[in-house]
């Protein structure tokens, strides 16, 4: 036998244990990963297979052991872009709600420790009440003043028409401007009135909450 042949046989003999170990490792690895059965829905049809096709990767599915038949887990379907955006928005809203609740609790604790009684708490709203009352009164005065000016302008224009004279362009323009000012002022007046009503509701709700926190029963006589 030649020297080359001898070396080849020796090499094979030395490599044999390594190859055997690798083969055993592969078999062991294969045995450690039992096959799974995938089940998912396509429309109204239920499909199960030991191989998951590419077009079903994003579907919700359940996974079972082929050998035992037991459920081993599941995967939710992949969300669409809109669904991911909605989920992110919902998560953000939950964080905001949590922060709002924590703020409310801190505010209530501060309210209890800061104000000795209801009259003390009511003083917090005195400035806001005064400002809104002043705004409402000012708006009432402006609306009445503008309405009076508009009535005067309309009366003058009416007198000219009754006399068979045309309404002057300046008179018509003044009437248009006063009417626009009156509409805008009435809008502002309504806004102030609504703000004042909302403040009354806020004051009452705050007092009710204060009474509840203090353990004071509401007087049924009001």
Q: Explain this structure to me?
A:
The protein folds into three domains: 34-78, no CATH class; 80-114; 115-214. Helices cover 68% and strands 10% of the residues. The chain is built from five helices and four strands; from the N terminus they run αββββαααα. Strands 2-1-3-4 form a four-stranded antiparallel sheet, with no helix packed on it. Helix 4 (126-162) packs antiparallel against helix 5 (169-214). The N and C termini lie far apart (119 Å). Mean pLDDT is 78; it is low at 1-16.
For the secondary structure, the number of strands is 4
What is the overall silhouette?
Answer: elongated
Helical/strand content category: alpha+beta
Tally of individual domains: 3
Could you spell the SSE succession in H and E letters?
HEEEEHHHH
Output the strand order for the largest sheet.
2-1-3-4
Integer-rounded radius of gyration: 42 Å
Assembly level = single chain
Fraction of residues in β-strands: 5-15%
**Biggest pleated-sheet summary:** 4 strands, antiparallel
- Mean of residue pLDDT values: 78
């Amino acid at each position: 036998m030649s020297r080359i042949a001898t070396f080849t046989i020796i090499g094979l003999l030395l490599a044999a244990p390594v190859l055997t170990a690798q083969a055993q490792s592969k078999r062991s690895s294969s045995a450690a990963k039992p096959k799974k059965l995938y089940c998912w829905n396509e429309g109204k049809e239920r499909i199960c297979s030991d191989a998951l096709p590419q077009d079903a990767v994003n579907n919700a599915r359940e996974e079972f052991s082929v050998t035992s038949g037991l459920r081993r887990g599941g995967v939710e379907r992949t969300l669409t872009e809109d669904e991911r955006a909605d989920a992110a928005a919902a998560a953000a809203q939950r964080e905001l709600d949590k922060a709002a609740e924590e703020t409310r609790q801190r505010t209530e604790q501060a309210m209890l420790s800061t104000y000795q009684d209801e009259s003390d708490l009511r003083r917090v709203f005195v400035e806001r009440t005064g400002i809104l009352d002043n705004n409402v009164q000012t708006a009432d005065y402006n609306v009445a003043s503008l309405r009076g000016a508009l009535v005067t302008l309309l009366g003058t224009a009416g007198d000219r028409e009754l006399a068979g004279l045309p309404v002057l362009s300046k008179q018509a323009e003044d009437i248009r401007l006063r009417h626009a000012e009156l509409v805008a002022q009435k809008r502002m007046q309504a806004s102030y009135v609504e703000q004042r009503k909302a403040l009354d509701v806020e004051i009452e709700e705050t007092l009710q909450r204060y009474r509840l926190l203090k353990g004071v029963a509401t007087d049924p006589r009001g």
